[in-house]
Write a structure and sequence with these properties.
By secondary structure, this protein is an alpha/beta fold. It contains 14 helices and 19 strands.
Length: about 475
């Protein structure tokens, strides 16, 4: 009688040979993927989902793989074992194919996760740009790293890409806290991303003049929030299928122009192009940011060549130019497009193939420098009264204080008092762009006064701590 252990030897031997083949040569990747597909039993009746960055293993189209990274799960323990085997077989190659750091920081009592992609060109000998790439609601940083992929671009252009994770809501979905009015509670995601930037700057050579943010859906919402509340550190942003809620847009008042690129499908059923009771309509959002930046409210419109006639969509480019300090608001209107990332490696809805969102985002972001965007316009002479900038205000945590284009080097005797006139202490941290950051965590809610001696004059600013 043949024992179970002896009976399984041929299959175990095949698995060992396949694992060796994966590690032997990258040229055998496609062969290994085909073998793994067969071994895992991928069929119309039973598909096994690999929560794995297949793009790192071999540049084959995702189109023939399962529609969602989480919609199809094996029904039996036997199939589950095959799925884990596939992951183990492909893991050694993936570790060789990418340079990704997975780590955590602690912020506001929570352990927050992130993935950092370090391009092959990075040497640490000179500062390079950093791009925040933020996932959508219910997704995570690994899925965003693959779906809205910048890694090949980063390898060529030499910039770092960080993929943070949002926290989980009561339904266990990861999210960014941007849907309720500011000050309504919930995770301090702006503070977390600012702290993450601090952490990365201690470990890597990052150019503080070239820090950008982009994201998909909820990640696009979060990028807009960074444009509002962290404009002293984020030079420009791009949003794919995101928007803003009315209360956040009304409270948004960045002290300088923020370049914005917005990509959105007209047939998006998740974040409707025309808006709803919660989300601002895309045309209104573009007008609001063009107005904030001092750009033309009438865009120049050009058609994107329809190079793919089978993707059920076309695209047009709208440019709101003439903004202060060279800022632009730009929009790709994907006519017929769904809640998708144009040019993505996997089709999960109507996905435009006439353009590559990742390439267009980097093309848009890369020229902008924070120092140039914060230069005061030549509309008139800057006075001490108009030069001192304090934001965000009201605040729930950190406050940035900046003396116009000159920076706080020209300001002395920075003093803070409460409503009764008593001095209040606040840790001060230089930001490196002519500004300092005040930490107000120890302040009780209420009204405070900031006094600075500027060019021999006392200038006051009222700060509201919520």
């Amino acid at each position: 009688m043949t024992s179970r252990k002896t009976k399984n030897r041929p299959r175990a031997a095949r698995r060992r040979r396949l694992s060796a083949a994966v590690q032997a040569s990258p040229l055998q990747n496609l062969y290994c993927l085909k073998k793994c597909s067969k071994l895992c039993g991928r069929s119309s009746q039973q598909t096994v989902v690999l929560r794995f960055a297949l793009h790192d293993v071999y540049p084959v189209p995702f189109v023939n793989w399962p529609r969602s990274l989480a919609e199809s799960v094996p029904k039996t323990t036997h199939a589950m074992k095959h799925a884990f085997l596939c992951l183990l077989l492909l893991l050694p190659l993936a570790l060789r194919a990418q340079t990704t750091v997975q780590s955590t920081i602690r912020h506001s009592g929570l352990v927050r996760e992130y993935r950092l992609y370090v391009p092959r060109a990075y040497t640490g000998s000179r500062p390079v740009p950093l791009l925040f790439n933020l996932h959508g609601y219910g997704s995570n940083n690994l899925e965003q790293e693959v779906y809205g992929d910048f890694r090949a671009i980063a390898d060529t252009a030499n910039f770092l890409v960080v993929h943070p994770n949002g926290t989980r809501d009561p339904a266990n979905n990861r999210f960014w806290n941007v849907f309720l009015p500011s000050g309504s509670g919930g995770p301090d995601d702006v503070g977390f991303l600012s702290a993450l930037l601090d952490t990365l700057r201690l470990r890597y050579q990052i150019d503080p003049d070239r820090v950008y943010s982009t994201g998909m859906s909820n990640g696009g919402f979060m990028s807009y929030q960074l444009a509002c509340q962290l404009s002293n550190r984020i030079a420009a942003i791009a949003s794919v299928t995101g928007s803003m809620v009315q209360s956040r847009l009304a409270a948004c008042a960045p002290p300088r122009p923020v370049p914005v690129l917005h990509i959105h499908g007209t047939a998006d059923a998740t974040v409707p192009y025309a808006g709803n009771a919660i989300y601002v309509p895309v045309p209104d959002l573009l007008q609001a940011w063009a107005r904030r930046n001092g750009a033309s409210l009438t865009p120049t419109i050009t058609q994107v060549p329809n190079t793919n006639t089978t993707d059920s969509s076309t695209a047009e480019r709208q440019v709101f130019s003439g903004g202060r300090n060279g800022s632009v608001v730009e929009h790709y209107r994907i006519i017929g497009g769904g809640h998708t990332w144009p040019g993505a490696p996997v089709t999960i809805g109507v996905t435009n193939r006439d353009m590559d969102a990742s390439r267009e985002i980097w093309r848009f972001l890369r020229p902008y420098r924070l120092s140039r965007l914060t230069v005061t316009s030549a509309a008139g002479p800057e006075t001490p009264e108009t030069a001192l900038l304090v934001y965000p205000n009201p605040t729930t945590g950190r406050v940035t204080v900046q003396l116009g284009a000159a920076g706080l080097a020209a300001a002395t005797a920075l003093r803070i008092t409460d409503a009764t006139g008593r001095n209040v202490r606040a840790p001060v941290r230089p930001l490196g762009n002519g500004a300092v950051e005040l930490h107000t965590a120890s302040w009780a809610p209420g009204v405070y006064w900031l006094q600075a001696e500027v060019a021999g004059q006392s200038v006051y600013r009222r700060i509201l701590k919520q």
